[in-house]
Amino acid sequence: MIRIAIQAKGRLNEDSVALLNEAGIEIEPSKRKLLTHALDFPLEVLYLRDDDIPQAVAMGVADIGIVGENEVAEKGEKLEVVHKLGFGKCRISLAIPKGETYDSPSWCNGKGVATSYPNILKKFFAENKIKADIHEIAGSVEIAPSVGMAEGIFDIVSSGGTLITNGLKEVEKVFWSEAVLVANPKLSAENRAILDQLLFRFQSVERSRGMKYMLMNLPCDKVEAAAKIMPGVKSPTILPLQQKGWCSMHVVVGERELWARIEQLKAIGAEDILVLSLEKMIP
Ligand code: ATP
Ligand code: MG
Known about the structure:
This protein is of the alpha/beta class and 283 residues long. The protein has 8 helices and 15 strands.
């Protein structure tokens, strides 16, 4: 049995649960419990605040976890980053009142900067040889300048809307983050094997995202040309139609290139094109 820590509620919770579900792991819905277990996979789920996940995994309270790289970097715990998960993307930036002129981090010298990420900020100041005060606050960082608590802030930005409503502007993008799967570096061999299974499933889910399954009819003498347009994963599947001289071609294609490919295929005589959603791709 492996134990995974995920965020109890907040921006990473839904995507973390969805990823587990798509990987075929049903979790008991009750979020009131701190600990639940999966119905058909040797996995327990521990619901925590995201700040607590790095330490929980480092201590072995949980074996693995899903958490933002920002928290991993801030907490500085000894963790193995197993895999980037592609959601929860954000950045940590320096922002200052919009009327200020800014040309370099030296703007911060002698000033106060409010943040929930004191360690990442400390590193940024050290790299830029800045001497400034770091005011650590847990939330609502963006109001700090307007209430006179600090001159600038160092906080998570995604769209920038919150900054604008608080009269701030982003002047330095410092740290890029997304959700990652982390593991305790000293997993037992059994748990390492379960982690490998889980990772294999996550990767299969990722691979099938944005992929479509496509079928079409085309004259058999166009198969070569069609396979050049749509090479598929290994190569297209070709089946004969009952009507002489016609074939059915099946192929997996990325959604983004779908329409361009369809136009090319129609131009060489493909007809009756079906595009189906693709649930899983197992290599
Ligand atoms: P908790 O109660 O668990 O401590 P929190 O308030 O600290 O929650 P959330 O706002 O839920 O945190 O964000 C959790 C994580 O999601 C952040 O640490 C970051 O990795 C990521 N994140 C934060 N803001 C955004 C955003 N605007 N867009 C995408 N991901 C974000
Ligand atoms: Mg938090």
